[in-house]
TrEMBL record:
Any one Gene Ontology BP term: proteolysis
Domain of life assignment: Bacteria
Protein name stated in the entry: Trypsin-like serine protease
Keyword Nucleus listed: no
Keywords noted in UniProt: Hydrolase, Protease, Signal
Organism encoding this protein: Microvirga thermotolerans
Length: 488
């Protein structure tokens, strides 16, 4: 979401220089000159980071304004430092880190209105639920701390809608914080105790299109006022054609899962542990999966079952069974399978994985060489992001080999906290950096897995951190939920 390359560009072009950085007077023109040297997407991401960190309450745009300059000065003042308006290297690093933490929790994705197609950013990291409505769609956080209606109304003009909305909010007891009415859009913001509401509609064809967002907390991970600023900016850009960063799309639960999606960030020094061979050379490849429901639903990696003519699954001592591939998510490297079998055990998903936490990997690596009873390894969480700070992944030190793909990543209590997906290509990394990495492996976070299951309407169990199991007991639990997958 906020690539480090953007932070690097910011560092190189927004650094304060010479006496101007040391003086107490702001230098607006110099700050403006440096800002306009940045490419457009970097200017936008910088403002999104400033918003996420809590210092910028306007929609991002490509120009440098007095208001943005004051926001930067206020950020400097909050640190007890000179309000020059020219950022130092440390100030930028701290700002980017603070904003990136919030953005990773939000994990924005873009959704289109079900009938109008216009895009809007939504925070998928809040484990959103979605339902179709007569006017469009409703997405909400499970505890109703965040709710957003994405609506289209034909035959209604902006001015009429503004009057009706304002009257409805006032009559319901809302304190109106501000309101804006223009020829082609309106905005009304209000609150009532802890309850906050923000409504924005634009002219769209013969009617209006917009969103109505409410929230009840400024605590993490919601940060409602910051969140609504970014969402409003994304919608404003969609309706006006203004520049705005492009991000990965999401789909609604009622939409048919696509067979293929846009690939995620490039991982030039990474390889999938059990990536299938090119089609013309294909024989049989294998991987791992695990049960996520009592109805025989299995999760694995997309690349494990990609291009298979037949997928065979073997659980424990049961005979092999043919599996049906129900859904694929190429971007997150996830696949959903189903077999007609009652599982011996089902995974429990746990959220909130911590840096340094002990983890275990179970799978069927190198099945033509190693035992098909499974392989169990231990390690730790070594980073909470993947290559290029990809927030969808965690980095682990537990050894991974070809065939581990799609297997469970477990905490010490036996909960599933991720899906093993790939290992760093040591030879390629050595060629690029001159250093040979040891046990640098990655797993898809359980938040991405849970969203995938929610989208495909698969109920799953959740677990909580508990007492650590002995390694032998942990291995037994991992083995009970895991399956060997053969792609033919």
């Amino acid at each position: 979401m906020l690539p480090r390359i953007i932070a690097t560009v910011c560092l190189s072009l927004l650094l304060s220089t010479g006496a101007g950085a040391q003086g107490g007077d702001p230098n607006f023109r110099e700050a403006e000159r440096l800002f306009l040297k940045l490419d457009i997407e970097t200017r936008l991401f910088f403002q999104i980071a400033l918003t996420s960190a809590g210092y910028w309450t306007a929609v991002p745009n490509v120009n440098y304004s007095r208001r943005l300059h004051r926001a930067i000065q206020e950020y400097q003042t909050s640190r007890g430092e000179s309000a020059t308006g020219l950022l130092t290297e440390k100030q930028i690093r701290d700002l980017i880190d603070s904003g990136a933490t919030v953005l990773k929790d939000w994990r924005f994705r873009s959704i289109g209105h079900p009938t109008r197609g216009r895009l809007l950013w939504v925070p998928m990291g809040l484990n959103l639920l979605a339902e179709r409505t007569s006017a469009g769609a409703l997405v909400k956080e499970p505890k109703n701390r965040f709710k957003l209606s994405f609506n289209s109304y034909d035959g209604v003009d902006v001015r009429t809608a503004y009057g009706l909305t304002l009257n409805e909010m006032v009559s319901s007891g809302d304190n109106i914080l501000y309101k804006i009415l223009r020829d082609d859009f309106f905005v009304i913001a209000g609150n009532q105790g802890r309850y906050n509401r923000y409504v924005r509609y634009h002219t769209d064809g013969s009617g209006i299109l917009g969103f109505d967002m409410s929230w009840s907390t400024e605590e993490p991970p919601i940060y409602g006022n910051r969140l609504v600023t970014v969402i409003s900016g994304s919608f404003w850009a969609s309706m006006t054609g203004a520049p705005f960063p492009r991000i990965e799309p999401a789909r609604y639960p009622w939409e048919a899962p696509p067979v293929a999606q846009t690939p995620g960030p490039s991982t030039s020094a990474a390889t999938a542990p059990s990536a299938p061979a090119p089609k013309e050379e294909r024989g049989v490849s294998s991987g791992t999966g695990f049960f996520v429901s009592d109805k025989g639903h299995i999760v694995s990696n997309h690349h494990v079952v990609d291009s298979c003519t037949t997928v065979m699954v073997k659980a424990g001592q049961s005979p092999p069974r043919t599996a049906t591939v129900l859904a694929r998510d190429k971007a997150n490297d996830l696949a959903l399978l189903k077999v007609e079998q009652t599982p011996p055990a089902v995974a429990e998903l746990r959220f909130g994985l911590r840096l340094g936490e002990p983890v275990a990997v179970f799978g069927y690596p190198l099945s033509d060489v190693l035992a098909r009873t499974g392989n169990f390894t231990l390690g730790n969480v070594t980073a909470l992001a993947g290559l290029g700070d990809d927030a969808r992944h965690v980095q682990i030190s537990a050894p991974v080999q070809q065939g581990n793909s799609g297997g469970p990543l477990l905490d010490e209590a036996g909960n599933v906290v991720g899906v093993v997906t790939y290992k760093l290509n040591a030879l390629k990394s050595a060629a690029l950096s001159g250093d040979i990495p040891q046990n640098v492996n990655f797993a898809v976070k359980v938040t991405a897995l849970s969203n995938f299951l929610d989208v495909n309407q698969v109920s799953y169990r959740t677990g909580a951190a508990g007492a650590a199991l002995k390694p032998a007991d942990l291995a037994e639990k991992a083995q009970s939920i895991s399956v060997y997958i053969e792609c033919r």
